[in-house]
Amino acid sequence: MKLYNTLSRQIEEFVPLDPSLVKLYTCGPTVYDYTHIGHLRKYTMDDVLVRTLRHTGYEVKFVRNVTDVGHLASDADTGEDKMEKSAKKYGGTAWEIAQKFEDYFHYSLDLMNNLRPNVTARATESVPYQLDLVKKLEEKGYTYVIPEDGVYFDTSKLPNYGKLARLNIEGLEEGARIEKVVGKRHPADFALWKFERPGENRAMVWESPWHQRSFPGWHIECSAISMEHLGDQLDIHTGGFDHIPVHHTNEIAQSEAITGRKPFVRFWVHHNFLLVDGQKMSKSLNNFYTIDDLLKKEYDPMAFRLLLLSAHYRSEMNFTWENMEGAQVSWEKLVDRIQGFLETKGQAPEPTEAQLAAVENYRHRFFGQIEHDLKTPEALAVMWDLVGGSNVTDEQKYHLLLEFDEVLGLGLAKIHEVEPVEVPTEIQQLLDQRQVAREKQDWQSADTLRQQIEKAGFQVIDEASGEQRVKKQ
Ligand code: AMP
Ligand code: ZN
């Protein structure tokens, strides 16, 4: 298995530290608004990664957090609390908002056929562990307190701070990347723990050694949850591109400061964005669609999954309704072909040596692409080759598709054979006339006849063999 590692900016051979278990962590959602299809891109590609590792033979422990505590609206440590802001928008308390949108996140991912992680951990439930880490960092001399503001991490104490993003620390200035916080010793320093401001009256606060009413900074929860469930060193950590310069950079700083600079993560895997009209789809820009928007237009979530698989996870992908329509057509074609394979399954004689070798060749090509940094577009091309191929039996195609689906996750095993349709005599007559028209290459009449058949509630499918088949619409 080969994976692109953001740390080295190279594709490397992936080998876990402990050969019997891959330790994988990903940053979960901040549950202050609806999960949108941009998130679904990221989490679906995580799912493909986990499925691929498992298919390769690894046991994977997959941990994901849920950011249900209100961290601040900017990547820096200033601005309004997202959860409190959303509570004002939607009504209810910050706690209720977090629960509502966490439920929506799981609902959306389940519809996308994503496997649940081995551990899903809420930030609010790991507060004591987070507090412990901050105390340890304080004991080790990595922190300082800004009165009435918070406990800050002193990045100058860590010689390789910023290695992931290859940040030019000397040249960093407050402004573009970092907002100004009075009292910070260096622009890159960040909050580990924050204090409630006088008169603020926040819904989510905890007692800490530094302040009666305080709350964790954003980055500490990921260090805490990943280390609590996976130990000091992770094999793979994933997240969106946007997390490289601040969030992941700070996770590394915290964790490596605690463990005495043992490399926290061996492989950093970062996902590119789903765009809409050329801009990142995001909650803050309010330019997003949810899974329910797709369902309302009668698109199948698996058609959307097929669309996602058609782009490499490190490439940008622009969402358009035209592409979605195209993916739906492809999905229906795939379902239809599978139903066809199910119908003829068992009718062909035992596969020949040549057919067995052909299957092996498809398998080799497909997994060769997937195991090379998850080249899903190329793997899909192999899948379509197989679907249309004439060198293997339908039964072989069906079984191999199910094997491919162990990593694609399209739920192909749930597709059932269609009930045989009773074709009324008048429809059969139209079909016979259409067959004659097609043989004469009279496409205009064939088309008119198709429309007549469709009006009567039947869909005509032209098989590759030249035969016609009908389905109830
Ligand atoms: P958030 O809830 O905003 O923290 O986002 C959760 C995850 O989804 C992060 O890893 C983000 O990088 C990722 N994400 C957010 N928006 C998009 C998008 N438009 N396309 C792909 N990934 C996204
Ligand atoms: Zn994180």
Beta percentage is: 15-25%
Characterize the quaternary organization of these chains: single chain
CATH architectural arrangement of the largest domain: 3-Layer(aba) Sandwich
CATH topology-level fold name of the largest domain: Rossmann fold
List the domain count as a whole number. 3
Give helix % range.
40-55%
What is the number of helices?
Answer: 14
> In whole angstroms, how far apart are the ends?
43 Å
| H and E order | EEEHEHHEHEEEEHEHEEEHHEHHHHHHEE
Which regions have little confidence, pLDDT < 50, spanning 5+ residues? none
Q: Would you give an account of this structure?
A:
- Helices cover 42% and strands 15% of the residues.
- The protein contains 14 helices and 16 strands.
- The protein has three domains: 270 residues, HUPs (Rossmann fold), CATH 3.40.50; 132 residues, Four Helix Bundle (Hemerythrin (Met), subunit A); 48 residues, no CATH class.
- The protein is α/β, with parallel strands linked by helices.
- A hairpin with a 4-residue loop joins strand 1 and strand 2.
- It starts with a strand and ends with a strand.
- Helix 8 packs across helix 9 and helix 10 runs antiparallel to helix 11.
- It is elongated and about 85 Å long.
- It has a five-stranded parallel sheet with strand order 5-4-3-10-11, with helices on both faces. A four-stranded antiparallel sheet has the order 6-7-8-9. Strands 13-12-14 form a three-stranded mixed sheet.
- The mean pLDDT is 92.
- It binds adenosine monophosphate and zinc ion (ZN).
